[in-house]
Design a protein that fits this description.
The protein has 257 residues and is α/β, with parallel strands linked by helices. 46% of the residues lie in helices and 14% in strands. β7, α9 and β8 form a beta-alpha-beta unit.
Length: 257
């Protein structure tokens, strides 16, 4: 069974952390992954930096720009991750945009993911229809879960189609805004969380965008299986470096480590 499916079956609320590979320094990637696991996070999203990250707010955009200036590339990421499974056991997901993956070669990219032990991909600009018709067979051949996003504007029909095509979890975007642009949840977002919960989807949901601290994590996971923190963690790295990752994780889920 894929590590993502195993983790989703566990009887607890899950915390995922997103970070941009190659940031703050190009060789920080593996150190961050190892320390996030030691700090007790349940799975990790490794950002593949891209020059035009449409869904990302200024914090993650800036981290991508710095990572690219540092010399981060797709090949470099796979090189960094080549021995990661000798040290880390939790699910690892690469989050990136489709253009670099297409340039690398979709099948080649998926093969490299399988070789280094990646469990899934999040590709915000790859439509579910295109994935189903053109790439699903390739992903499944390599044991990769493709994680799709839904938003408050996604129709029920579309959500149910995504649920049918998915086998892992559904990334439930809390807002139509970019990452890092919201603090707390308003009434519309709370109603959206409740509405999706009541749909009784086949796949568990994990909330992203707007999760930054213990309060937002706890509220999001009232309705969903887990929550993802990205921009707040990038800000922590920017301010504190990579030396006290455990402190950040503890601030979100005290008693976790």
């Amino acid at each position: 069974m894929n590590r993502i499916n195993q983790r989703m079956k566990e009887d607890k609320k899950l915390l995922s952390i997103y970070f941009t590979s190659g940031y703050p320094e190009i060789e920080d990637t593996v150190h961050i992954i190892k320390n996030l696991e030691k700090s007790g996070v349940d799975f990790i999203e490794i950002g593949l930096p891209f020059s035009d990250p449409l869904a990302d707010g200024p914090t993650i955009q800036e981290s991508s720009t710095i990572a690219l200036k540092n010399g981060m590339t797709t090949n470099k990421l796979f090189e960094q991750l080549k021995d990661i499974r000798s040290e880390v056991s939790i699910p690892l997901i690469i989050m990136g945009y489709f253009n670099p993956i297409l340039q690398f070669g979709v099948e080649k990219f998926c093969t490299k993911c399988e070789e280094v032990g990646i469990d899934g991909l999040i590709i915000p600009d790859l439509p579910v229809d295109v994935y189903k018709d053109e790439y699903k067979v390739i992903f499944e051949k390599r044991g990769l879960k493709n994680i799709f996003l839904i938003t408050p504007q996604t129709s029920e029909e579309r959500i149910r189609f995504i649920d049918k095509v998915s086998d892992g979890f559904i990334y439930m975007v809390s807002t139509a805004s970019v990452t890092g642009s919201t603090k707390g949840f308003g009434d519309e977002t709370k109603a959206y969380f409740k509405r999706i919960s009541e749909m009784k989807l086949r796949n568990p949901q994990v909330v992203g965008f707007g999760i930054s601290d213990e309060a937002t994590f706890n509220y999001a996971t009232k309705y969903a299986k887990g929550a993802i923190i990205g921009s707040a963690f990038i800000k922590h790295l920017n301010k504190n470096g990579i030396g006290n990752i455990q402190d950040f994780v503890k601030s979100v889920r005290p008693g976790l480590t």
